[in-house]
Amino acid sequence: MNEPLKSLRILAVDDNKTNLHVLQVFLKKQGHQVLLAENGEEAVQKFEAERPDMVLLDIMMPVMDGFEAARRIRVLAQDLWVPIIFLSALNRDENLLEGLESGGDDYLTKPINFIVLEAKLRSMQKSLALQAQSVESLNRLQAISDSVLEAIITIDTTATVIACNLATERLFGWTADELIGQNVKVLMAEPYHSEHDAYVQRYVDGGPRRIIGTEREVIGRRRDGNLFPAELAVSEIRLDNNRLFIGVIRDISERKAAEATLRENARQLQVYYDQTESEQQLAIRLIEKQMHRRGLQDPSLRYAVIAAQHFSGDVVAAVRSPEGRFYALLADATGHGLAAAISVLPVLSVFYRMSAQNLPVQELIREFNQQLRESMPIGRFVAATVVCLDPASKSGEIWVGGTPSALLIDRWGRKEAEFPSTQLPLGIMDAIDTQATTFTWQKESQLLLYSDGLIEATAQDGLQFGTEGILASVAHTTPGQRFDAVSTALAKHLGDELAADDVSLMVIDCP
Fold first, then answer.
1. What CATH class does 292-509 carry?
2. Which residues contact 83 (CB under 8 A, 6 or more apart)?
3. Distances in Å between the alpha carbon of 278 and those of 57, 116, 275, 283, 338?
């Protein structure tokens, strides 16, 4: 049975506080500990002080950008591999290349696809687990042997082996007695095997120092003929007027295998990301075409929809009929994300088609319910508030099913009337009460429509925003101030917290 992956300490860096909060919530939901920084300089300081396991790093930041921060973090990390994933809206090839050259391991463009980010995190977790296992194994073997793990081989100026340690026996399969006296090239693969004697002789005769004092990758050959990747470092000493060369050889098979696995994981992730991104972009274009209609630009309307995920299950719509009636819809589909957004598309299509026919609200409600019953699976439904305002008669109709009460606010910011939900959400039952409530208004009155995500928005102390928060924010305000007043009050209420559900708000001027 595979052991569960260990949670990580992740440093998230972004100068946009909203982005940081979104990342923080996501990472905590994945079970990770999160450190936050708002610029590159702060990120380097946090890294040096806290030593996180991984870094999610924005590029364009004040004080110090992400590229410079990555370079400094790499220096601080030294030999320990700490994954750095760049998160940026910049997606040109040169940005990706510069990110990798500055020490980045991966790159994810904004807006962040959290499915892909989760996959990348799991891949990095596995790689870090491999690294941790390697370090643990190394420490264990060092404790057992109480000596150097690497093969240490000493040769003379004729390339003859004159000494080796026990690690050499384990690595190459030769005993010390068998190996001492042989030419060291017996441990080398071609072309090094054939060229080594000439190379040693050139150096002994005064040739350039090409590998002395440096470390490089080579291919070693075991006694049984099997080849393996290794790192070789060579130094020279003089002992009793004899020139000796000491080679330290480390088997890097596991590291190479881990690197190959990481590259393959990265390749698979890129393929998955490309496919997902294409599908997401198509879905976005289709949904935006349905949602962003000209009626939402009506001067009598101000609105906001804030998604808890990439897609919002809340939608708003507005249109004027040819006869001048103003229709508005606020709908909240079951769940969040793409599935919720798709659920409400049938309602949008019917809304715009039937509003153009100047039909009463009850006709719209009947058709909404029928369309949802025919198209949606069991368990999916849509709560909605539908309004029709007739400037000619200065009267309106409103139907509320499953959404919070709509509020009619007078010119002084006081509650003039409240329209509670008296019906079930659309799509649950075949037969529903479609009768709308009629109402009139005073001069400069406004209608406030909102989803439950607004009133259920919860602060750090557990207190919900509530209808009381709405009424308090609009009290003693002018009509032109109310939309901003509610938005500001909500932001102050949440503080550093994020709304757990989609939030939508419509403020409609009554003619």
1. alpha beta
2. 53, 54, 55, 105, 106, 124, 127, 128
3. 24, 13, 5, 9, 14
- Hey, where are the domains in the chain? 9-121+130-143, 151-251, 292-509
Between CA 344 and CA 291 the distance in angstroms is 10
What one-character DSSP code corresponds to residue 413?
S
Cα gap 376→333, rounded to integer Å: 11
Residue spans of beta strands (DSSP E) within 357-489: 382-390, 395-401, 406-409, 415-419, 437-440, 446-450
* Residue 269 confidence (pLDDT): 85
Task: Decide if 400 contacts 383 (C-beta within 8 A).
Answer: no
Cite the DSSP H helix spans in 146-252: 166-172, 176-179, 192-204
- 151-251 in CATH: which number? 3.30.450.20
In sequence order, the β-bridge partners of residue 318 are 328
CATH number for the domain formed by residue range(s) 9-121+130-143: 3.40.50.2300
Structure confidence at residue 147 (pLDDT): 61
Percentage of the residues of the chain whose pLDDT score is greater than 90: 42
pLDDT in tens, 387-445: 999 999 999 999 999 999 999 999 999 999 999 998 889 888 888 899 999 999 999 99
What gap in Å lies between CA 83 and CA 47, rounded to an integer? Answer: 12
pTM of the full predicted structure? 0.49
